[in-house]
Amino acid sequence: MSELILTYGAGGAQGAPVAHGLLDAGYRVRALVTDTARNRSLVDAGADVVAGNLADMDSVRRATQGVDKVFLMLPFSGRGNPLDYARNAIQAAKEAGVKLVVLNTSGQTPEEPTGLPMLDYRIHLEQLLRESGVPGIILRPTAYMENFLGPWVLPRLGAENVLAYPVEAGRPTSWIAAQDLGRFAVAALGRPDLAGLSFNLGGPQALRGKDIAAVFTSALGREIVYESLSPEQFGAIMGRVVGPEAETAIVAAYKAGEAAPLDAMVVAMDRVLSHLPVKQTTLEQWVRQHAALFAQTAQA
């Protein structure tokens, strides 16, 4: 019988490609979600979808029973303490004798504390897994291409042909597609011999603002201009999305990003691909995959 893998976040943009990728690879998948009715696609694909959440230790323990491996990522809602959620998942995995946890940090982990909880929690998150005694592999993605589908991009992209994003136009970034994170996670879950290793993940290209605009122009067939949002502008938008209590932290985090070395978001993928050989998606391929959505936005 194939291994049973518990996936967290399987109903979201980052976790869904992992769950579906595992099913396609022949694994049995259990998905812990807060609302089973909203995740019928996982059920239809063959996953065992169970109700619960990371704040409820009893539901986490039930979901982890009989599991061989775990894919762990934490919700980003601006509410609750993500480290408490991680402790629950890791403790349940330890109690159940899980053979491997693959952790998606959903962002880069600072090399040293920054004083910003929104960034530094990843340092403590990784430490929790390492000190638990549960074998683990850590995946640290840069920035997701799916961020270009956010409300800080789509309205102006459709109305003005302006792609506005809170990264300076001259800062290169190795954008990664969520589907590729899914592929890396599936590959890592099949490599327990890599336990103890961490991998910074990026896409196949390091692109600046003008490069991004050129890709969107080519893929969508209309002239697109890149515009850098300030941290304050982006924080105001995100405050409306995830709640005003998160706005100050978001602004501070993006200000720290502006102060980081110019190549801080560039990832050389040779080492990763030597261990986890995954075919990666270019930004142009990704934009073309979502061309219909971008066209609908332009017509709205």
TrEMBL record:
<protein>
    <submittedName>
        <fullName>Uncharacterized protein YbjT (DUF2867 family)</fullName>
    </submittedName>
</protein>
<dbReference type="Pfam" id="PF05368">
    <property type="entry name" value="NmrA"/>
</dbReference>
<dbReference type="InterPro" id="IPR051164">
    <property type="entry name" value="NmrA-like_oxidored"/>
</dbReference>
<comment type="similarity">
    <text>Belongs to the NmrA-type oxidoreductase family.</text>
</comment>
<feature type="domain" description="NmrA-like">
    <location>
        <begin position="2"/>
        <end position="286"/>
    </location>
</feature>
<dbReference type="InterPro" id="IPR008030">
    <property type="entry name" value="NmrA-like"/>
</dbReference>
<dbReference type="InterPro" id="IPR036291">
    <property type="entry name" value="NAD(P)-bd_dom_sf"/>
</dbReference>
<keyword id="KW-0521">NADP</keyword>
